[in-house]
Each structure stands twice: as C-alpha cells, then as structure tokens.
Amino acid sequence: MDVKQKLSQVVGADAFFDDPATLQAYSGDFSDTPRRAPNYVVKPKNAEEISGVIKFCNENCIPVVPCSSKVHFYGATIPKEGGVVMDMEKMNKVLEIDHDNRRVRFEAGVTWEKLTQELKKEGFRVIMPLTPPAQRSALTDFLEREEPTNQVYDYGEPLAAMEVVWPTGEIFRMGSASVNGYPDSPSKGGNPSGPGLDFYRFFQCAQGTMGVVTWTNLKIEAIPRIDKIMLAPITDLAYATDFLYRILPRRIGQEVLLLNNVDLAAILAEQPGDFEKLKSSLPPWTLILVISGLKRRPEEKIAYEQNFLNQVIKNEFSNMRLGESLPGFPGLNSKLLKILRNPWPADVPYWKNSVKGACQTLSFHTRPLKAKHFVSLVEEIASRHAYSVRDIGIYIQPIEHNRACRPEFSFFYDPQNAEEKAAVRRLYKEAAIALINEGAVFTRPYGELAPIVYERATGYVTQLRRLKKVFDPNNIMNPGNLCF
Q1: Mind listing the pLDDT tens digit for each residue in 345-381?
Q2: What is the DSSP string of 140-198?
Q3: How far apart are the C-alpha atoms of 445 and 402, rounded to whole Å?
Q4: How much is the pTM?
Q5: Domains of the chain with CATH codes
Q6: 3-class DSSP state for residue 376?
Q7: Phi, psi dihedral angles at 358 (to 5 degrees)
Q8: Is residue 207 within 8 Å of residue 482, measured between CB atoms?
Q9: Which of 399, 415, 313, 397 is nearest to 360 (CA)?
Q10: Is 371 exposed, middle or buried (0-12, 13-18, 19+ CB in 10 A)?
C-alpha cells in the first residue's frame, strides 16, 4: 500500500492533499526560515485518526509535522525534511466549560477568536498574551509558553491536563485527566500533576518534536466586574522597574506591561500615516497597569489598590505620573483595555507586520534589574549594523509579581529587500550571542537560536536526546528543530 492510499484511508480522501498549491501553502510562515514544502498534508478530525497517521509514518520513517493554525512566526511548522504536515484545523471544538473549577477543555485547532467568544458567553475570559492573532491556535501559544500580560503568579501556569498522541501512535492522557472515567468522573482534570509521574512539560516549548497534543484543560477567570486602566509616561526604565518592584509583590494590578513608543505606535496605528506620527509623539515608554474587581466585593478591591498606589507614589515615587489617561492621548485607556482583552482582529494586518511587512523578534527571560542593561546592549549592537535604535520595538513583560521579566525586541524590515533582510538576520544573531553571554535565558530556541543555546548546555542536550530516543526512536516528529 503506497503512502497516498494509506493516509487517505486513515483520514478520508477529502482530508488528504498532495496537490502543489496546497503543499506550497504549508512551505513557509511569517519568519525568514527557508521554505520547504511537505510531501503530503492531512487534516485529521480526532485522536484515532492522528494515531493512525503517526503509526504508519513511524513504521515507514516518514517525518510528521503537526500544526494547529495558519498563523506561525518562528519556522517551527515548516517541514524541514519534507514528510507529512498534520493540520489540526478540523479539531476545533470547545469541549467543556467548567464554571466551578474555572477551566475550559478545548481541541488543538480552536482559535483565539473562537475561544474568547465561547468563554465570553459564559462570563469568562482567558488570561492571554499580548495581541495573539485571532486565527492562531490558542493551544499553540500556551504550549509555547507565551507570557500572559497578567503578571499574577496564579496565572503563570495555565495549562493543566491534556491528551497526547506519542510518536509511536499511542494515545495518552496526563494530569488528572488520566483517571478512569474521565471526563465523566468526579475528577475534572483541574490538577496538572494528577496521579503519579506526569509528562506534560515534555510538550511545552518542544515545537512538535515529542508528539501531538489533541486537547487540553486551561485555567480561565471570570470577566472582571470593574476595570480601571492606568497609564504612566516613562523616561527612566530603571525608575519604572523600581516602582514595579514596590507594587507588584503586593498583588497590585492584573495586566501590567511596558511598551516603548515604537511597539505602542504599531499597535495603535489605524491608518497608513498614523505610525510615524504616534511614534514621534508618544513618550519613550508607557507603563500600562490594569486594576480589576472580580466577582467578590469588586469596589473594595479597586479602592484598596488605588489607595495603595496613591500612597506609594506620594511617599516614594513622586515623579511617577500614573493616571487614568496619558497626556495628549484622550481615550487611550479604554482603547488599550479592549486590545489587551481580545485577540488581534483577523481582518486587520498584524501589527508586527504592518510597519514594514515583516518582523524578527528576539525574546528571553531575565531579572527586571537587568532589563535596562539589555536594552542598551541591543541598541549598541543595532547601531553597529546600521539599524536605527529609534526603529526597534521593545516590550517588557513583568512575570510573577516582578520576580522576573520577559523583554522582547522587534526588528521590523522589508521582506522584499534582500540586503535589509540579511542585515536584520546578522543583527539578530549577534544580539542573541551577546545576550546569552550576559546571562539572558532563552527558553524557546527557534531556528538559528537553537545551536547557540544548546552548544552551551551539553548535559541538558544529552538528556534531551536520550528522552527523544525513548519516545520517538525513529525521530519522525518534526525533525530539524531543537537539537534533534
């Protein structure tokens, strides 16, 4: 039986594709990773079909690359060695919304747009990263550990139980979803650890190299009854960092983030000429702080947090101009709240690609005290590559009450300009090496970043490869990524 016949038999003839146009559509993404088309594309509709495809491919050493949406940025779904792309778009059901345990169970193909709409009907919301594209898989972002804009510790690990298909084709449930009778049993999968040894971290940041996740349980939160969004113009990043160190350990604020004028202008721009005007008129940095009242005594919670902020500013940070508006930008607070609480609209070009057509991002984790140093370091390197520091987008996301932070640098470029594209690539690589030499922690090594990270962690790489050999002995799952 040939490959086409077998795969068509498993998923159905209408869910198997090998025509050139379809294959070409899966050969690239929004990154500058070299294009490579798969040999086949399949669109399974359940775990059993996924298992059937993987079993056949494992027996015949055919690479399998899982993907969950059409919006990808890092090259992780490009089939670098050909094979089968497994598109999960048909698995797009929100299976269950559990009000009591504040969790939602949904399949891998559910988009941000669908997930937020379904939860809103029930009075809930997802604690989401900054502006995820509406048509991107929500599960993908959580598997990739995209940082939520909410810095409260409780939301830092939103993934709980999940169902996976191992590279051998075995269907496996982990966490408390592994108990007998799930999902009808009393255990509803709220605990990510579950009974005994668990494996869910194998799949986080693994870029589809350890198997396929079919559905997951995710923590959710009630939609706040009251929100007050506060803004502050920032000229001194160190001063803002000290302020956040003072307030965030007291559990002040829900969404908290810092955007420089480039990123904020790109997010706010609505018309072609808006970006440059906004960039020149916005302050160097803007602190965005949302305080919220949930279901229980929301007015008192807002009043407590507001009073605490007033006292800290009055007694310790008199230069912090934190208010409900940003001078010169009336109505910005309500506009930003809508942006923070919803995915980026599907009918609007994504803001990172609207500036010049493409964007290369570099993100990592560090201590907040080092953020200013890393900003200066990247700006110095950019200058050496003739990339204007005034054109670098920078976003700093506090994590877990400011215990850590995630800086993200955006280098915008014209994808049709080969010289400009090559310059950004050189800048990216030099900056990554310099940052890691200075102690930056890269938890998601994509593309060229992977060898830079893994050559410095030989013991870790050895153990990863041993695990990979156990679960994927034929190395069929997305070969060419990480260190495999």
Answers
A1: 999 999 999 999 999 999 999 999 999 999 999 999 9
A2: HHHHTTPPBSB--GGGS--EEEEEEE-TTS-EEEEGGGGSTTTTTSS--S--SS-SS--
A3: 23
A4: 0.94
A5: 3-87 (3.30.43.10), 94-222 (3.30.465.10), 224-348 (3.40.462.10), 356-444 (3.40.462.10)
A6: helix
A7: -155, 165
A8: yes
A9: 415
A10: buried
Buried b (16+ CB within 10 A) or exposed e, 151-169: bbeebbebbbbbbbbbbbb
Terminal-residue alpha carbon distance, the chain: 29
pLDDT digits (tens, 9 = 90+) for 227-268: 999 999 999 999 999 999 999 999 999 999 999 999 999 999
Q: Is 39 left (phi over 0), alpha (psi -120 to 50) or beta?
A: alpha
97: β partners: 104
Beta bridge partner(s), residue 285: 234, 260
Residue carrying structure tokens 């929500």: 138
Contact predicate 397/340, CB 8 Å: no
C-alpha 285/C-alpha 264 separation (Å) is: 9
> φ, ψ for residue 300 (rounded to 5)?
-65, -40
Whether residue 115 contacts residue 104, with contact meaning beta carbons closer than 8 Å, is answered with yes
pLDDT digits (tens, 9 = 90+) for 52-78: 999 999 999 999 999 998 799 999 999
